[in-house]
Amino acid sequence: MYEKNYPNKRFKLTLQFLKKHISNSETILDLGVVNPFTKIMQENGYSVENTLGEDIDLNTSTIENSNSDVVTAFEIFEHLLSPFTVLQSIKADKLVASIPLRLWFSSAYRSKTDMLDRHYHEFEDWQFDWLLEKAGWKIIDSKKWTHPVKKIGIRPILRWFTPRYYIVYAERI
């Protein structure tokens, strides 16, 4: 599948960033259950295993027992109460992680129907950088992008030029 065929800007930019830093010969542990982006990584030649849906705030054994070269975490850390603990438990020397950025004009996401689908943290870029550095990671590269929506209003207009997503490539110090 070619990148231009992905309907989602986030998937396209995430894949471009991943390809820039991670080779197909490196194995990946993707935090979170199998998802559409897992399949995209596999279609692009990556060997990917996922965590099994366990609460990784409480149980980091899958992360600690993984022999993967790289850990990816795409829109995961905002759902955790303690992302610091998870970041410290990673044995791999490489990390590619993305988060939704905190928007000054919109409150944190909270599903009204799914108790688990909530954002406990919506970071500013400097806060996420600090968290990574404190957990023993050095940021090598990063990128931000917007997420416009096809709606009318002040917030949708602000989304055209306010970055919503932030992705980093980091290496263990």
Automatic annotation (TrEMBL):
Domain of life: Bacteria
Gene3D superfamilies referenced in this protein's UniProt entry, alphabetically: Vaccinia Virus protein VP39
BP term (GO), one: methylation
GO molecular function (one): methyltransferase activity
Entry keyword set: Methyltransferase, Transferase
Name assigned to this protein: Methyltransferase
Organism: Flavivirga algicola
